[in-house]
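Quick one before lunch.
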Amino acid sequence: MSAPVPGSDTAAVQKAVAELIRALGLDAASEPELGETPARVADLYREIFGGFDPAQSPDVATFPHDGQGDIVLVRDIPFHSLCVHHFVPFFGRALIAYLPGDELLGISAMARLLDTYARRPQLQERIGQQIADHIERVAKPRGVAVILEARHLCMEMRGIRRVRHGRDPDRARRTRRSSLGADAAVRAGAGALGSQPP
Ligand SMILES: [Zn+2]
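Model of the zinc ion complex:
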């Protein structure tokens, strides 16, 4: 029997959240709003952990291509994820670009890949790596670049954004994974994502 998909055992999650509420010293009896919280959190987790579900894995179609030509680039794709270190959201926008080889990806594939890899507890850097690896695996491009820019609530809610972001506290955190020989996509990405916060 295969292991259950993470997040899918809602009964166990409900039980654990109820235990967490008690461990925090909160009391559902004196605060009725907490009564349904374990069930709500379990439902929410099942949904936002949906990227683990193989049944929801994107079926990324490819089309034959002549191996020539320009960068394919999709930018400003929104995403929401959950920081694996703190279980608090981080969210932002992505730019995904590749230089096609013998295969082209369907244009919606990029957004679906982003959604799949974001819908689980994650690291911003790892989302970019996983998308780039996936594109390399299915489309064998001549190069690929993924740029993610995100706000991390685990930092912002604790007021430590200034510490981590140094001289530029208002800029969201950016990560990049790139194997493009042509840096045009990366430069385009910097322009596309650098002008405003997500
Ligand atoms: Zn965090």
